[in-house]
Specification:
By secondary structure, the protein is an all-beta fold. It has one domain: Immunoglobulin-like (Sandwich). It is built from no helices and 10 strands. The protein has a 5-stranded antiparallel β-sheet, with no helix packed on it. A hairpin with a 7-residue loop joins β5 and β6. The chain starts with a strand and ends with a strand.
Length: about 130
């Protein structure tokens, strides 16, 4: 028996419990920082995401018209990644994004960050958010 706040009594076999699936939440606030040489550090916010299998790190040559391709994966719960940004073409802009794989947020993506390839390294002051 279950007694409700208004004094109502229900037999437990009359009680119906509803389970709602977790809401889909996209990772947010992708940022990129250029470190000495061609290394790019990515960080993103995973607040509210649960049940994911992993995250897919994707890159594309935005200048050359390429599509995003997976360059690495990180396990669930991880929200940072450091990468050697090469090889790259001088003067080309490269976009990075992070996708959720698995769970309620499967397939949702962060914003895209762009970096410009310099003569020997990525150029820090050319990062922008789109």
């Amino acid at each position: 028996m279950l007694t409700l706040t208004q004094g109502w009594v229900l037999p437990l076999d009359d009680l119906l419990l509803l389970a709602y699936p977790a809401a889909a939440v996209a990772p947010t606030t992708l940022t990129a920082t250029v470190v000495v040489g061609p290394q790019v550090n990515l960080a993103w916010d995973i607040t509210g995401i649960s049940g994911e299998d992993h995250y897919s790190i994707l890159r594309r040559d935005a200048t050359g018209g390429g599509s995003f391709a997976e360059v690495h994966t990180v396990t669930s719960g991880v929200d940072v990644w450091a990468v050697d940004a090469g090889p790259f073409t001088t003067g080309h802009r490269y976009g990075y994004r992070v996708d959720v794989v698995g769970g309620a947020s499967d397939g949702l993506s962060t914003n895209v960050v762009l970096a410009l390839g310099g003569t020997k390294r990525m150029v820090a002051d050319e990062f922008s958010h789109t």
